[in-house]
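== Fold encoding ==
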Amino acid sequence: MIVVVCPGQGSQTPGFLTPWLAEPGFAERLDALSAAAGIDLAAHGTVSDADTIRDTAVAQPLIVAAGLLTLDALIDDGRAERIGGIAGHSVGEITAAAGAGVLTGTEAIGFVAERGRAMAEAAALEPTGMSAVLGGDEADLLARLAELGLEPANFNGGGQIVVAGAVDALEQLKAEPPAGARVIPLQVAGAFHTRYMRPAVERLAEVAERLSPADPALPIWTNRDGSTVASGTEFLELLVGQVSSPVRWDRCMESFAEAGVSGIIELAPAGALVGLAKRGLKGVPTVAVKTPDDLAAAIELIDQAA
């Protein structure tokens, strides 16, 4: 069973869409998504610098648009029927929702554009950030976070947990980490997937009320707990709540294993989730679709599993 995974914020790099824009029809489809998002995604994916595309309001629609368009290329010629399921990490869940048919592409890009703006505004309310914690005992880390008023934001598996909260508390965690743990500050705009994002949840709930989600056409796993969701309405509700709740990617990977995953394909801008899979799903073949040149390997993986 092949599972398609959709990356989250932080996976984008300057110019990553440049090779894709040479593909037939890609530029036209990206223009349509740009219109729906209200920003120039082609420019941000080709010439904008790292600081510009780090902006939450830019990064999130850019990542989802890239995923949607590379997914279209991947499942062309009837290959969609040979995909066993789909899941996304954080904002990648919106890409996954469109891939499963819960939202249309236009609905997904409109929703993520609102999400990016709402989260950027919430992050601007007070100085917060995120850090990756590698190694150490999870129970010790959670106890330390409670002492400092920090929260776990992403349980990524393979001994990696991303934590978030006030900047001064993150600095204290780095200075005095739990035994065996290493703390790496991340270049993000705020404490995503924590209580600091509750203003964004309220705004997204209003946006969601204007949408009419369909039930997923293929298995889709949720970041909430790694379970599959059969209701489009429920999955949309989870997308709203996910903004201020932890991402349980560790449990998603556990669910992939239980479902009999035989291959992982990561959509553009790919790399991060394949890296986690190599640690959390050892021995499972993976393909990171970073450029059009990677499509052949991804298609071969699908054909082998058919």
